[in-house]
Records
---
Amino acid sequence: MSTSSAESLTRKFTIYFTSIALMVGVIIYGLSLSMLYWLEDEVNTRLLYAASVTAVSDFNAGAPSPLTMTNSITAYNDLSQLPEQYQGLADLPSGFLNEMTNASEQGDIFVYRTDYVAMQSHHPLLLVMNAETAELTENEWRRISLFVFGITSTLFLLFGYALIKLTKRMIQPISQLSDQLHNGQPQQRFQVPDGAVQEFHHLTASLNSYQAQIAQLIEQEHTFSRYASHELRTPLTIIHGASHLLQHDQSPDFQQRQQQRIIKAAADMQNTVDALLSLVKQESRQSEPQPQRKLTQAEMETLISTVSELASKKAVSIELNMQSQPQITPPEAVLRMLISNLINNAINASDGGKIIVTVSDDYIDVVDQGRGLTESEIHQQGHGLGLLIVNALCQRYGWEFDLADAKTGGCIARLRFNTNAIS
């Protein structure tokens, strides 16, 4: 596994591009000097070629050979008059125009060898230019080299600075996100600089979304654990207490009542276990449609009877309005947990009055006349421990759960079989 960090990646990028920039700088420096050398020679040869026209005109006018045209150019139309150091130039072919290195004791020279016609006869023409006087001196070349080197170095430094800034700007969001992930503070929102590219902002938004989902799932897990513990401990306590009482009273009526309590508590525990297992069970064929069944009035009355004792203690009456017998998917244990949670929450939020349970083809409503919703309950974070279980069960079976204030007071809890809104 690689152990490179964002900082080391920045250094690698810097070294890599610095090497490229240095190589490019050396190439540019070499090409610049080479171009200047070529340009200098090209100017001198063209100057020598242009001087040949003047030399021919002067010789036709009777000028003697050798003809001194400038302090650096000398023309000859009689090769026998060439100085001893230039004797080898007589053998050059006509049309030769170039610089010759170490051709004389005076140093490098430019030579142009040609012919011209005068008085109907051909005459040779040789122009010699001293390169030392025509070319730039060593000091001048040194100054030019320093100037080119300075420009190249400045460009190199500017390129390196821009490269480092660009690399840091590219790596900074990654480093910042890495530090935030490493710190791992709860409820921390990930952030990147405003100048970061759009993809980093999308990544940050996704991380924040995933973190919120993880926090919600953790909270749901804690709530689920508390709720499951409460739902399972209550019947166990009843069974344990009734079993203990059976040992102290042997009267038939008393024992029968305790047995009924044990049977009811065991049935409640069984329903709770079935509902929770239905929630966490991994179906082997999730893509296949689940079988539906009819929700009958008798089943709803049985479900309501399980919470009637709590309702009577708070002077709350429960009314069933069975408008239809819809086809539903959840089994009886799951439906019992859904309805009992909603009715229990409605009872706990009421100080009397009436709770109306309405069953239609599209939804099941539980309407109370209680205190209404608090701020946390509006965001579905309160109103009983079983609310998250209700949401999870609805998602499991493709239902939707809504909780809203009723216009006449209290609130409406709705289990929707489709997407109809609360009116």
---
Amino acid sequence: MSVLMELRELQKWYPQGDGVVKALDGVDLTVEEGEFVTIIGPSGSGKSTLMNQLGCLDQPTGGHYRLEGEDVASLNEEQLSHIRRKTIGFVFQGFHLLPGLTALENVELPLYYQRIPALERRRMALEALDRVGLSHRAEHLPAQMSGGQQQRTAIARAIAPRPPLILADEPTGNLDRQAGAQIMELLRQLWQEGRTLILITHDPDIAAKAPRTVVIRDGRVVEEVRRDQMP
């Protein structure tokens, strides 16, 4: 496997009063293509800030981040936006579905911004909904679906453009145990199909479902766990 992302001494500091908050304080991390990595830490540890860096949603204060060999800090906003559209599928705890759009229309949205023609866009969105088991809910609004179905719609939206990397931030946080287990199984299947999966969590049981877990505390990676056998 080749290296997909490489972080060296990555820093993200925020001004606070007369000082700074060191949300990330020298993070070193390498992720290879096709890995499934969970990142775990308590509230305030810096894991969501790290997710924003990995997803090119924010620029670092210092250090280096290379994604597919590209130095992220050297890119402008248009270039970062292109990388996000081409390379990364995002799954968030809060679903972030537009309430006035159907499941199908929500899934089509990132394809629209990529200027994919309408018929191809519709075909790709339907294919993604079918992949998550929701083709029968294509014309339903988010309010007409359960939390688990909304999250599966969000996953369909993330995978519809066929990105090689999926970043999931607490994807089971708003779900009951059964729905959460279904979402984790779906994400795991997507990883087994060849995608790179990075999942942020505060739950040790969720973290243990990956072959590799990175523990972050006070803005630093303090431990890594690798598992030969998966639960």
